[in-house]
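FAQ: What does the model actually see?

It sees only this:
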Amino acid sequence: MYPDIDALYQAILPISAPLHSCTDARGRFWDRTPTGFAYVLNLLPQEDALLIEAGFLFPTDWDYIASIGGRDTSIRLRVIRRVRTEEELHAAMAEVEALRSAWFSATREELKAHIASLQKAFLQRITAQLKPLGFRKKAANWTFQRGDGYEVVWNAQKSLYSDGYYFNLYLHRVGMRELYGCIDTRPMGELLDWQTISGEAFDARLRTVIEQHIRPLMTLPLSEIAQNPTLFGKPALCTPRRCADCWNPEDA
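And it is asked to produce this:
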């Protein structure tokens, strides 16, 4: 049975009353905080749920904010929820109001520091799982030395266009990743919103990736890895060039 999306929309609409309506986007609202950044609220009916997005961003174009507001991971500190029931709606409303109350009068520096602390805590979740396996962290890379002249790298790549992460898994000769990248894949899929995924859900996804993708690269002989390209979601293709003693017969 489909939820009554219009009823959910009408029930939550009053929380937008203090805000300005975006001129060119229905269901989007905005306000300017006392310290000069933007608060946005989006109430977006979908086929099977009401999508609620709320939070703060640092606009460079206020006309753009007034026109269509901000969406998704362009919102720097955010709550994003899909609600289908009144119970979910009330829980989302409480989160939205708590976020607005806590940070609406904060300074830009305070807000940025808070976001940075959340991001640090998120990346620490990766270290907590990879460090016991022998990975060492440097910047946004966690590296494991196989002991045969090759290393495994788990990389957190921040998107250039939004506040999300891509997670890359590499196998390459030690110190030669840019020239001889044997495996380059994204076993977690595409862009991940690190703020809205729960810590428990992220931990579970990373554990699955470790068992299905990372651990085999750590432990299997290269000859066996070459025979199991499906371990990595796509064939193990060398980019951009091949070593003279390539271990993968598919590339040789």
